[in-house]
Amino acid sequence: MSFDYQIGDYYETYRNFKLDVPERYNWAYEVFDTWGQDSSKVAMVWVGRDGDTKEVTFRHLSERSKRVANALIGLGVQPGDRVFVMLPRIIEWWELILGCMRSRTISVPGTTMLTSKDIAYRINISEVKIAVVDSDNIEKIQAIRKECPTLEKVIIVGNAEGAISYEDILQKSSPKLPNPNNFSNDPMMLYFTSGTTGHPKMVLNTHASYPLAHIITGKFWLDNRPSDLHWTIADTGWAQAAWTSFFAPWTMGAAIFIWDNRGKFDSAGTLHMLEKYPITTFFAPPTVYRMLLTDKKLNGLRPKALRHCVGAGEAVNPDLIDVWKKNTGTHIWEGYGQTETVLCIATFPGMRPKPGSMGVAAPGFNIAVIDEKGVEVSDGQEGEIAIRVRPDRPVGLFSEYWRDPDANAKSFQGDWYRTGDTAYRDADGYFWFVGRDDDVINSAAYRIGPFEVESALSEHDAVAETAVVASPDELRGNIVKAFVVLNAGYKPTDSLINELQEHVKEVTAPYKYPRIVEFVHALPKTISGKIRRIELRNRELGKN
C-alpha cells in the first residue's frame, strides 16, 4: 500500500483526482486488514484514566473485531440491523465499529452524555436491535428498555445484571470471518445530527462514503503517514471520531492516540500528553486550542514529536494560529466538513494559508456559494455553501437523511446538496465561513439544535414559552442562551435560572444546557405566530 503524502500542486491534484468506487467493498478487509499483515504494526496507543498505557496492533484489532462480528451474528443480527454503541474512549469502541462493518450491521454511535430520553428516541426511531454500553451507562438503558420494542439485547462492557457480557461472548466467538464481499453502497453507519425545528435527523453513510472517501481527509489534510501517531480530541459519539480517529489515519497506516479522559476538558493533561508521547499530528476544534492557549503551562510546552496540527468546527482566529505556532512551532491548518460529508474544504499543507479562511474545495468536490434559487453568486458575495451532485455525486457525501423525505427534499435541490452554512468565496477560491442558515448552535465543537433545549425547558412548570439561540462567547465561540417567558406565579430569580439549567441537564444531554437565561415578557413572532429566532440572534450580535 503506497500513497503520496502531500497534495503537491493543489490545482493539478484537484484536476486529476478521482476515487474509483468498486462495486463491492468492505474497508475493514480491504484496508485495515492489509495493515494487519504486519503482526507488529501498532494501530493504537491507548492511555487509561489511571495512566496505564497499551499498544494495540492492527492484527490484534482485526482478530478482536472478527470475534465481535461473529458474536453479533450469533445473537441473531442480520445485515442492515442497527447496533447502538455508546461507549467512552475505550478500545472496545473501535473493536465494535470494525465488527459492525464486518457483520454488515449498521453502527449507531452515541455520546455517553446522552440521557435516557435521548437514548430512547434514537433507539426507537432507528429501530435498534442491539445496544452496547459500559457499566457507567447501563442504568440509562435499563431505565427505558421497556419503552423500546425493537431492542432485543443489551451488551455491557463490564459487569451488570440483565445484560450480556461483552467479553464473555467474544471469548466464545471465532477470530476468523471471511470478507462478506458486500456492495459498496450498502448502509454502514448512522449518525444523528442536531435538530433545529424538530428532532435530530439520521445521517446514513455507506461502505464507500466514509471508509473510502476519508482518504481525502487523511492523505491531504491530516498529512498522515504510516510512521505517524495521530491524536484527535473528539468524543466517540461524534462523527469527528469516525473522521479522524478511525478512517482517515488508519487508511494511511498511521497509529491513533487515545486518552480515556472523561469529564471536563483537561488542558494541562492534554499538554502533558503532547510532551510525553510521540504524537506527530493533532486535531482539535478551535475551542480546545483556545483553552490550551489560556493554560499557563503552554509557555513551557515542548511537544515530543508534533509536526502538523489541524482544526475544524468553527472559524479559527488568526491570532490564535500565531500564538500556537509561536509556542509549538506548528501551524493550525483549517478545514470544513459535516457529519454528512468527509473533509470537503480545507487549507492543505504546501498551500498558502489565509488565517481565518476554511480553505479551498477538496479534491473530489465541486463546491460553490449559491443563492436561494440555486444560482452561483459572485466572489465576495455571501450565500449558502453547496456541493454539486450532478452529473457526478461526490463519493464522500452521505447517502440520505434516513426515513426523512422532507429533509432530503430540502437539502438536495437541483444540482446541489445545500449544506445550510453561509459563507463567501474570495477571488483566489478560498471560502470564508459566516454562519448557519438555520438555527443550529455551534458551541465548543458541539452542534446543538434549539428544539431539544426548548422542549426540555418547556417541560418545567415555570416556563410558559421559550426560544433558544446562540450567544457569542470569547472562549467557546458561541454558547446556548434561552429567552424565557414565565407562567403566572413565578418570579425571575437567580435560583430559578439555576433550577432551569439543572432541569435541562437532567432531561437532555448536559452539554446542551443554556449557560445564559434571560427572562422576557414576550417573544418576537411572525403574524402566523412563529417565533422569530433571527431577531433574537441579531440582538445577541448587536444588530438590533
Write down the Rg: 23 Å
* CATH structural fold name of the largest domain: Rossmann fold
What's the count of strands? 27
Helix content: 25-40%
Q: What value does the average pLDDT take? A: 91
**Distance between termini?**
57 Å
Give the low-pLDDT segments. Answer: 1-5
Sketch the major β-sheet.
9 strands, mixed
The gross shape turns out to be globular
> What structural class results from the helix and strand content?
alpha/beta
**Major beta sheet, strand line-up:** 2-1-11-10-12-13-14-15-16
Oligomer: single chain
Q: How would you name the CATH homologous superfamily of the largest domain?
A: ANL, N-terminal domain
CATH classification, class level of the largest domain: Alpha Beta
Please indicate the count of domains.
2
DSSP summary: helix tally: 16
In CATH, the architecture of the largest domain is 3-Layer(aba) Sandwich
Strand content: 15-25%
What topology does this entry show?
Elements: H1 10-16, H2 27-35, E1 42-47, E2 53-57, H3 58-74, E3 82-86, H4 91-103, E4 106-109, H5 116-126, E5 128-134, H6 138-144, E6 153-157, E7 164-165, H7 166-171, E8 187-192, E9 202-206, H8 215-221, E10 229-232, H9 239-251, E11 255-259, H10 267-276, E12 281-283, H11 286-293, E13 308-312, H12 318-328, E14 332-336, E15 345-346, E16 360-361, E17 367-370, E18 383-388, E19 400-401, H13 405-411, E20 412-413, E21 416-425, E22 431-436, E23 441-443, E24 446-448, H14 450-458, E25 463-473, E26 477-486, H15 494-507, E27 516-519, H16 533-540
Helix pairs in contact: 3-4, 5-6, 8-9
